Amino acid sequence: MASDAWWKERTVYQIYPRSFCDSNGDGIGDLRGIIGKLDYLKDLGVGIVWLSPVYKSPNDDNGYDISDYTAINPEFGTMEDMDALIEKARELDIKIIMDLVINHTSDEHEWFVKSAAGDSEYRDYYIWRKGKGKKPPNNWTSFFAGDAWQKRGEEYYLHLFSPKQPDLNWNNPKVYDEIKKVMKFWLDKGIAGFRCDVINIIYKTSLADGKKRLALTGKEHYLSQEGCHRLLQRLNEDVLNDYDCFTVGETVMVTPKEACRLTNRDKREMDMVFGFEHMECDQWMIKWFKTKYKPERLIAALVKWQTNVPWNTVYFENHDQPRSVSRFGDEGEYRVQSAKMLGGLLFTLKGTPFVYEGQEIGMLNGDFKNLDEVQDVESHNVDKTARRMLFTKGRRWKMIKRTTRDNARTPMQWTGGKNAGFTSGTPWLKVNANCADINVEAARGDSDGIFDWYKNMIALRASNVTLLYGEFVDATDKKFPRVFRFKRVGNDGVVTVVANMTAKTVRDYFVKRPTEGTILQSNYADSSADLRPYEFMATMSQKEKI
Ligand code: ISL
Ligand code: CA
Q1: Is the whole-model pTM more than 0.90?
Q2: Of 163, 174, 372, 436, which is most buried with the most CB atoms under 10 A?
Q3: What is the per-residue pLDDT across 216-225, written as a single tens digit (0 to 9) for each?
Q4: Pocket test for ligand 1, best of 197, 319, 380 (most atoms within 8 A of CB)
């Protein structure tokens, strides 16, 4: 197996192409736009870019519904643009990984069109079953709310996401062969790996009725099945092991134990995974029902994963999650301090850090006024379902405003000018009005700003072997449950991190818990006996008892 150091030591930056930078004024971000910003990413210190899907797609779910795996969505450009992007990135020593969405395709994919038409070659590429009387084949529900089955002709097909995202049938060896070809196509072009969309649900062991649940009825039949582990091992043996590449799996509802199995080094399946437990610390049951955010829940989830999984991802944002400062920090007075505190954790916790576009300037949730301003297919489905359940309009909007995935998808804020410098045309999704203050231009001009903080943290981590490989040891003091304190213990030294996760000052904290060693990074200019709102400090000492 090739060296794993590069994907452990570099920082990954996720681009949501639609929202990143529009080069031709049609209001939609594109590949030429990304090419124009590679120098910006290099300056930040990014070593790997993860591109959300850029394949041909009718965009029911913004590219997560693929209609051709080896073609570029014309909205984003051409295959020549893609080649140019890979080439320019290579010159800058930035690796590119792509999104591999293989649980489902678009219903406009040629395979599905033929399958639905009854073509015997293709019928079994998807999961078709007869209904039970007037009802679907089983009681499963979709990730986007509502039934997981859609009738087409005499039979129903399974879709765990939108009806325009039919699930592939991974019991069919032909599907396996097709996807193998797709992976080779991109790896041969020089991409450095894949972020594998909902990878732990691709294999359906049975189609029996599921135990009734508030959400995802049926999941016991497809979540992290033995068949899935087998398939992933085979994909490594047949394809991935031949390349110097890595995979990161988006693994829904995964436990640390399951994550260890997925990332084990003996029978390679995934190299890292995205767990969701720390993203659920402000939820009750499912993401639509928010409860008050409790920092101690976030700390507990992080500690659990840090101590139980040898190497994994570290992330606070992606294109499906509301912005981290809006959720776990402070949108007002302490925006900068809280963004730096979260950014501080991102690069001092153990694992490969993932930055989502705009996070490096502390972008906030979208400022949507009503559902008409929201495009996310999931939000519209939830609205429909909640309406059927007789939720009032006001209640529905309150739910959606806080949780819609469009919170993270508003156009990247490059400048304080028209449309935040994202496009010269009409942006596909509303630009946040706060772009007047929160934008790359302003952030880069401020040596004390969030951008420089990220840049410094990325450089610090890359050059500090203790931060890269030191063991994580929780040192949170029960007397201060909202102050996250931990150590990274390496052969050459110990890094101690203290992070106040709240806007409340803790009086005389440093008197009670003095820090030792030299300060590596701190988000307050001066020192104090108190731990101030969202204060973050990392210190390094050569030897320390733990
Ligand atoms: O959105 C979620 C967490 O808030 C999860 O339900 C889960 O991560 C998500 O639904 C699965 O996401 C992935 O697959 C979807 C696509 O819409 C998402 O954008 C993608 O990240 C279907 O391909
Ligand atoms: Ca464009």
Answers
A1: yes
A2: 163
A3: 999 999 999 9
A4: 197
